[in-house]
Amino acid sequence: MTVLLVILLIGLVVAVANLALSLINLGRFAPPPTHAAGDLSSLPTLAVCIPARNEEENIEAVIRSLQESDYPADRLHFLVYDDQSTDLTPRILEKLSAADARIVRVPTHSLPVGWNGKQHACHRMAAHAIAQLNAQWLLFTDADVRFEPTCLSRMVHAAITMTPRSGKPIGLLSTFPREITATLGELLLIPNIFFILLSYLPMGRMRATLDPAASAACGQFLLVSQPAYVASGGHERFRDSMHDGIKLPREVRKAGFATDLVDGTSLLSCRMYRGFRQSWRGFAKNAYEGLGSLGLLVFLSVCTVTAHVLPWGVLALGATETIKFSNDWLLVVAGFSVLIGASQRAILAQRFGHPVSLALLHPIASAMMMGVQWHSFYLHLTGQRAWKGRTGAHENVAG
User: Does residue 334 lie in a domain region?
Assistant: First the structure.
């Protein structure tokens, strides 16, 4: 048995495990339940918090979509923190807030040393929502997200009625929007979110324990109860981070509350980035932080190469007779890995609103996913992680 065959067999085991866990997770990753019209009257006060730094292209659209919500108007507030924008964002907010008293422009403060801009904005909005509005639930979202009318009511209703297997109350509920990809570069990078999540997160364990390592969330939608937010220390606990989607659920679990994920594909949407370059930079700013260790990065890289990249290369070389392999089992094993990986990619693409043809680009998308992770690790080591004109925690740069 050749070394290459052993490597391919290991890759086949990984591919089978990834597909199996994805299928199990898809069965558990359900949309929030619908609710009766009468349930709306019992919904708690909700503050939607939107950090905005140079969001002139998005801020009005996200607020307009929120204003269409069926959530009781007297218990719904929209908080926006203008994070020293240099575009038309302040002027747009002034117009919107003058027409709707529910829109609150939280006063802007200079970014303190040691703070990441987004975490500071969310911290300021949370403090205002709790102290001034006594909001019972806080939703942290982004300006590029668009909401369907029933999104807020269904998500809050789910959060207050779900009964996790851990027996602890839900302190944080999150979801991933339908991620819109309009260019090939976006398509090759963005759907990897779902591929990694469903291939490696054991959702059964997530719901049965409060283990912080078994948690996951999306920074585009973080719905947190006031008690959980206060007990966890909120955004101040990870003030220098660029990854609230990882950090906040872990802190909430440490505080003794459960966290969960539901499928929000039909309830909200988002076009995260525009084009390949912006997508790469956007993921590279916090991809390594999301993993948290070099060991995990190496493990994920080995799994990806052996299961989702190498088999395609071996099969292509053998099929085109570029290289004549002495052992036919190499092509058989590689072929099974290719079939399994492509099938998983197609299933996920169909479920989350991406073209099924993405399955044919599976090895390229997987290789690019690893490229982003290692680039993010390099940026982490050299202190060059940057986003929206800032690098690190509070060091202003041109951008």
Answer: yes
Return d(Cα 331, Cα 337) in angstroms, integer: 10
> Do 136 and 267 belong to one domain?
yes
Residue 181: partners with Cβ closer than 8 Å, 6 or more residues away: 187, 190, 191, 271, 354
How does residue 389 score in pLDDT terms, banded at 50, 70 and 90? low
C-alpha span between 61 and 147 (Å, rounded): 10
Q: Which of 142, 386, 392, 398 is nearest to 278 (CA)?
A: 386
Give me the helices (H) in 237-328, please: 244-254, 275-284, 287-291, 294-304, 310-319
Token pair in block for residue 252 = 């909430």
Q: For residue 21, what is the enclosing H or E element?
A: helix 3-28
Q: Which amino acid is at 233?
A: G
Written as one letter, the residue type at 47 is A
Number of domains making up the chain: 2
DSSP 71: S
Question: Quick one: which of 312, 350, 352 has its CA closest to 334?
Answer: 312
CA atoms of 302 and 287, how far apart (whole Å): 17
Measured CA to CA, the distance from residue 222 to residue 227 in angstroms comes to 15
Domain span holding position 264: 29-275
CB count within 10 Å of CB 66 equals 24
Closest C-alpha among 49, 57, 395, 137 to residue 242? 395
The 10s digit of each residue's pLDDT in 159-207 is: 999 887 878 899 999 999 999 999 999 999 999 999 999 999 999 999 9
Q: Are 132 and 235 in contact (CB under 8 A)?
A: no
Higher model confidence: residue 41 or residue 365?
Answer: 365
Mean pLDDT of 304-325: 87
H-state helical runs in 134-259: 151-161, 184-189, 192-200, 203-208, 226-232, 244-254
Q: What distance lies between CA 388 and its chain's CA centroid?
A: 18
Domain C-terminal end among 275, 299, 318: 275
Strand, helix or coil for residue 173: strand
